[in-house]
């Protein structure tokens, strides 16, 4: 299960749980309204417990959503396992990692 909340203190979108084939599709729908309502798309991945290639694909899709809204997006605190997959696939250069 994946959860998304906007933290008013840090002004970041906090992602928790698994970003996998089972949860990625719901992640697209979860951000439709949230991205519209949020001025800054700073996404904190600290609480992501597990991810697979679908999780990385979801981050790419969120970049597309942000581009459509003409808003910059940044990813913070990508877990080591997810970062290793991004590096192996060459996506770390494409993802706006902080």
Automatic annotation (TrEMBL):
Pfam families: STAS_2. InterPro entries: MlaB-like_STAS (IPR058548), MlaB_ABC_Transporter (IPR052746), STAS_dom (IPR002645), STAS_dom_sf (IPR036513). It comes from Methylophaga nitratireducenticrescens. This is Sulfate transporter/antisigma-factor antagonist STAS. PANTHER family: BLR2341 PROTEIN (PTHR35849), INTERMEMBRANE PHOSPHOLIPID TRANSPORT SYSTEM BINDING PROTEIN MLAB (PTHR35849:SF1).
